[in-house]
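PROTEIN DESIGN WORKSHEET
SECTION A - STRUCTURE
LENGTH: 129
TOKENS:
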């Protein structure tokens, strides 16, 4: 009879149980916050990389669309104020290769941003027909 009386006197949860539950909850919230931070950072990096790829691809296609092979060299520029893309710099380099067998131009477009670790480069070769 004494055993049932002690069980009836004990009600609620102890301070130790509350502290363990709060520790588990705090640890899981810190883990979720770190996951959210990494997710946001990778999204921002992916957006920058996609913008750089779009800029480089658009420039390569613009150079490839040039009708006059000899005036293609005028498209070699360095652009810093690209509308819609703040902070990006796009450098277009055109190098002509002439020898007895080949005559072509190599177009290299490099896009950089201060927050990007590595620049994005696209290269193509255009031959004269």
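SECTION B - SEQUENCE
RESIDUE ASSIGNMENT:
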């Amino acid at each position: 009879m004494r055993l049932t009386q002690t069980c009836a006197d004990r009600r609620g949860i102890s301070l130790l149980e509350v502290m363990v539950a709060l520790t588990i909850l705090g640890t899981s919230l810190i883990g979720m916050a770190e996951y959210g931070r990494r997710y946001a950072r990778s999204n921002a990096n992916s957006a920058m990389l996609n913008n750089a790829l779009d800029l480089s691809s658009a420039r390569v296609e613009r150079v490839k669309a040039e009708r006059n092979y000899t005036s293609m060299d005028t498209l070699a520029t360095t652009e810093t104020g690209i509308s819609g893309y703040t902070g990006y710099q796009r450098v277009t380099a055109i190098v002509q290769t002439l020898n007895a067998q080949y005559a072509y131009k190599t177009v290299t477009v490099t896009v950089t941003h201060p927050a990007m670790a590595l620049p994005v480069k696209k290269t193509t070769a255009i031959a004269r027909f």
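SECTION C - NOTES
The beta strands are 78-79, 89-98, 103-112, 120-127.
The first strand starts at residue 78 and ends at 79.
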